[in-house]
Design a protein that fits this description.
The structure holds 2 protein chains of 2 kinds. Chain A is mainly alpha-helical. Chain A has a single domain, classed as ABC transporter involved in vitamin B12 uptake, BtuC (Orthogonal Bundle), CATH 1.10.3470. Chain A has 14 helices and no strands. In chain A, helix 3 packs antiparallel against helix 10 (224-250). Chain B has 2 domains: 34-161 and 299-328, Response regulator (Rossmann fold); 164-298 and 343-359, Rossmann fold (3-Layer(aba) Sandwich), CATH 3.40.50.2300. Chain B is built from 13 helices and 12 strands. Chain B has a 6-stranded parallel sheet, sandwiched between helices. In chain B, strands 7-6-8-9-10-12 form a 6-stranded mixed sheet, with helices on both faces. The longest helix of chain B is centred in the N-terminal third of the chain and has 26 residues, at 2-27. In chain B, 55% of the residues are buried.
């Protein structure tokens, strides 16, 4: 790699920035689509952790919801073709989506009971959920695949009318941010709504209080246990949506372990995004851009010096970049990321006088 | 607090029962009518799952079919979740005195070789494993392969397929049904020989019928990891990216296991033709059947089942067994709903290619001494 020294570094950097912008422009819509499970997973973690419950079981919750949503939709569909409405919405898909959400909430209820009522170790609870979800869905899918049933299809992306899409800049913005299926569009709305609610609503204030100093919150009349339950269950709705994205929106069929670690990336995004919805979404985009960059370098390498340099970089480096940044953020080098003070601590009411 | 401990314990116990029940379901013995055998058969998968509708699953079905054919109890399986666990998973069967251990995938070759050397009384069957040992029978990382595997490890059958041959035929089909003259293949990783074998064969097959055709060969991952073979959304992302950048591509061949099932999904949504891999994906992945024209197959189930039968008949020999088109161990699947696209003219060209591959007048690629495509002299991966 000693030839790098002979190439003007500044020029190379400018070329790289140009290339990166090109990658982001052409793949913008895809990056946002792929950020959906990570952003929704991070929002699930956000709901949990802001109120003081650590949730590392997001991966398992997503996988379980993905399976249940897919299977219920396929059962309701029964192999009969249904004419889809706008965004490819059909009755079986809606039922499947609902089932995925119920599944997410059900697994969350287990997590809530273990971590809030039983006051078990929350890391262990999350680990159990991850392992069980992989095993149970994999096994059930193996049984189903003996007599495969046709899937109910998947939601379709919104198509920006050709006339509008061809307008410079505006057309790109609209297709990039609106050219998605219903779950991705819901994610975009939820990120903004939750951000506002966290800092501007009574619920947000109470949630933050329960996550920072539950005892103080309790003395002010907040029922911390109830609040935590509610938040963890609502987080289950988000994990359910994330799971539904896999089987009802992007892929349209289920396969064992198909979440492939995205629930863990969601955790990293939550930390990277400093436990805020907008931050987590931004982090999910950074992960997506790094991924797209790595793929672009191997699929359509740039020409000239930059191409020579980039093709010398193993593509794992690009995938590893966001994690390196997460470590740097955690270490406090570039603005510290501090978790809620009571995150992971089971809350015990003051003992009643006995 | 005490009560809560019990509650947690009860939860664990309940979950354990669920899991146990799940495992039980898997092992329910299915004795066949005639022959019986008390051979115990175990199978270790590569990273992935038994329900991949593909490589692991059909090897597993081969093990089940083989067990049934010889009248043995239904086989057991261990699904590998991390490549670091290969040796551990193989040894879990060794320690339980299994008689036949099937390991699935090129990546398990080294650990299978070690286990075969350490346990001469256990029969090993390695799918996609060309056996390469030094003079002492140890795995040879230099690939000099000086040792004679057949005599050093007579208990180890390595099954290797000439993927370049079905790949070549897939390329012939792709070039002939392409209207734009621009086709593509997406592979999991170039570091597993089976993948570039398929893809280089595909390239050469396409060029053989249309010399000026543009063929994109892309690899998703630089390592044989979950991203390469176990990530449908990642596969769809890769294919979406490729097809958005090259809207004129109208045939897409997937060589990426379960990741590739996302590739098929993308092809369907872009309304282009797809070609499946390893097994007849029109049947195995029905959700993308509507755009799956044909699949480049290797007959995994039969190969594994036959190898088990050879052990039972005491006809098994050690060493690498190369399975190719002359025994119909590889080939094209039926065209199913796409049969109408295959005009008599196209069919004639496919038949000519099959004939040439069988009699040796056509080489699917420049081969290394081990039967794989030579990446350097053939076509470079990507």
């Amino acid at each position: 790699m000693d030839f790098i020294l002979h190439v003007p570094v500044i020029g190379l950097l400018l070329q790289f920035i140009g290339y990166l912008v090109g990658v982001m422009t052409t793949n913008g819509s895809l990056i946002i689509t792929l950020s959906t499970p990570i952003a929704l997973g991070a929002l699930c973690g956000f709901m949990n952790e802001r109120s003081g419950v650590v949730n590392i079981g997001i991966e398992g919750m997503m996988l379980f919801a993905a399976f249940v949503g897919w299977y219920v939709a396929a059962l309701v569909n029964g192999g009969a073709p249904t004419s889809p409405g706008p965004l490819g919405i059909t009755f079986p898909l809606l039922v499947g989506l609902l089932a995925a959400i119920v599944a997410g909430v059900a697994v969350s209820a287990l997590h809530a009971w273990l971590s809030i009522t039983v006051r078990a170790n929350q890391i262990i609870s999350g680990t159990i959920i991850n392992i069980e979800a992989l095993a149970i869905t994999g096994y059930l899918n193996l049984l189903i695949s003996q007599n495969p049933i046709p899937s109910a299809g998947n939601f379709q992306s919104f198509h920006v009318p050709q006339g509008v899409a061809s307008v410079p800049v505006l057309g790109w913005l609209l297709t990039t941010f609106l050219g998605h299926g219903p779950i991705t569009l819901t994610m975009l709305v939820l990120v903004i709504v939750l951000q506002i609610l966290l800092f501007r609503s009574r619920w947000g204030l109470r949630t933050r209080a329960a996550g920072e100093h539950p005892r103080a919150a309790e003395t002010l009349g907040i029922d911390v246990i109830r609040l935590r339950y509610r938040n963890v269950l609502l987080g289950g709705v988000l994990a359910g949506l994330a799971g539904a994205w896999f089987t009802l929106e992007y892929i349209g069929t289920f396969q064992g372990g198909m979440t492939n670690g995205r629930g863990f990336i969601a955790l990293a995004a939550l930390i990277f995004g400093r436990w805020t919805p907008i931050g987590a979404f931004g982090a999910a985009l950074v992960f997506g851009i790094a991924d797209a960059l790595g793929q672009a370098v191997s699929f359509n390498p740039p020409s000239g010096d930059l191409g020579a340099v980039l093709s010398g970089v193993p593509e794992q480096v690009f995938s590893a970049l966001p994690y390196l940044v997460t470590i740097i953020v955690l270490a406090g080098v570039v603005g510290r990321s501090i978790p809620p003070a009571a995150d992971g601590q089971p809350y015990e009411r003051e003992a009643k006088a006995t | 607090m005490r009560k809560h401990r019990y509650a947690l314990g009860a939860t664990f116990a309940a979950l354990a029962i669920v899991l146990l029940a799940a495992c039980q379901g898997n092992t329910g013995g299915s004795q066949s009518g005639g022959a019986t055998s008390n051979l115990k058969i175990g199978l270790v998968t590569d990273v992935g799952t038994l329900d991949d509708h593909n490589f692991n699953q059909f090897s597993w079905e081969g093990a089940k079919a083989g067990a049934q054919a010889i009248g043995a109890a239904a086989p057991q399986s261990v699904v590998t979740t991390q490549s670091a666990d290969y040796a551990k998973n193989i040894n879990s069967f060794v320690s339980k005195n299994y008689n036949i251990i099937v390991t699935v995938g090129f990546a398990l070759g080294s650990d299978t070789t070690k286990a075969a050397k350490a346990n001469p009384n256990i029969k090993f069957i390695g799918v996609d494993q060309g056996i390469c040992v030094d003079a002492q029978g140890n795995p040879d990382s230099t690939f000099a392969c000086k040792g004679d595997a057949a005599t050093l490890l007579p208990n180890y059958q390595g099954l290797v397929f000439k993927e370049q041959q079905p790949g070549y035929l897939a390329g012939v089909v792709a070039a002939l049904i392409s209207k734009s003259g621009h086709i593509a293949a997406i592979g999991g990783t170039a570091t597993v020989p089976a993948v570039p074998n398929y893809m280089i064969g595909y390239l050469n097959g396409a060029k053989s019928v249309k010399a000026d055709i543009k063929v994109e060969l892309k690899y998703i991952s630089a390592a044989p990891d979950a991203k390469a073979f176990n990530d449908p959304p990642g596969g769809k992302q890769a294919a979406d990216g490729l097809l958005n950048a090259n809207p004129d591509i109208d045939v897409l061949f997937q060589v990426a296991g379960k990741t590739g099932n996302g590739v098929l999904q993308s092809a369907c949504e872009h309304n282009i033709h797809a070609i499946g891999v390893d097994v007849d994906q029109f049947v195995s992945t029905p959700d993308t059947a509507k755009c799956t024209v044909v699949s480049a197959e290797k007959k995994l189930k039969k190969a594994v089942s036959d190898a088990i039968q050879r052990v039972k008949d005491k006809k098994d020999k050690g060493g690498t067994i190369t399975l190719d088109i002359t025994t119909d161990s590889v080939g094209l699947s039926p065209f199913h709903d796409s049969a109408s696209m295959i005009t008599p003219d196209i069919q004639a060209k496919i038949d000519a290619a099959i004939k040439g591959l069988k009699d040796g007048s056509i080489k699917a690629c420049v081969e290394t001494p081990f039967g794989s495509c030579d990446n350097k002299n053939g076509q470079p991966p990507a």
